[in-house]
Give the backbone structure.
Amino acid sequence: MTRTIDFHYFVVRNGATFCELHAVAGAEPKIMMDDSGSIKMKLSGSFLPPEEDVNWLTDEIRPVMVIDGTEYSLGVFLPSNVAETETGGSQRVRVDAFDRDWIVKDYRMERTLFLQAGTKYLDAIGSVLAESGITLISAVDSDEVLAEDRADWEIGTPAIDIVNQLLAEINYEELWFDQQGAAVLEPKATATANNIEHTLDETNVESLMLPGISRTTDFHSAPNVFICVCSNADKDSAMVAIAENTNPQSPLSLARRGRRIPVLVNVDNIASQEELQLYADRMVTDSMLKGEVIGVTTCLLPGYGVGDIVALRYGELSAICRAKRWTMDLKVGGHMDFTLERVILNLE
């Protein structure tokens, strides 16, 4: 399978392309995704000095990969550290940049935030994002509303903490930004055969998988019963939801472990009893993801975001996984290194 690949690094000012950066051969940029951090994606690399007067404080960088003439945007990044160097008469600009999560993390509330009972969660989240400077939003709608008046967040609270707390209360993923720079608000995705976003199959040339994988397993003290309790001040009694791992294919399950390993999880706020049960059920699913970690290397594959659901087939291994981390080398002949957490359910 032969592909023609090229890369461009556009400087974006006020939403429009301002100029283009040129990567230094041998020190080309790479993109790193880690869904465990509040900032999910980072771009690092060295460039030739720009021909235009780039404002490193406010301009953004949009890397693009071109495969056989088709452009694939790889995200929008705001420089966090810029170092200009000169060696042997050659000038270089080393740039470290974060996705727009950084903007939300950097903004701290200038007032005590008050949210009125009955406010839709997504409206509240949208207003906090707008206050922090984010207006481009891609959201899956939700009818959930705040059950009570809220004034939980004092002056100086990072906006990203508020956004992620509200998202968690309706069982949405943490805030992340897609390849176009839009804030993504979406329900948590339980990895199943029905919502696979990518397939990596060693027998399929389009997967571009390289030989060899790594597998590690750690089930030490992993719980299989989750007791979630939410005690809101304005409620007469606490809401309680219990979820058990009864999946016969999971080595953590009650039947296969032969014992109950419960854990108590206190939840500050949740939209409803139904959402609390979904929260508990999700904790069971997440616990099954933490047993086996698989490392896979491929050639460059555009279109991967944060926490994508991946079907993996390699030799006798056939599984559904969640992409926890990946690194992409932005150069011809570059690779992607994936860290996948396996759902214990096998693919049929």
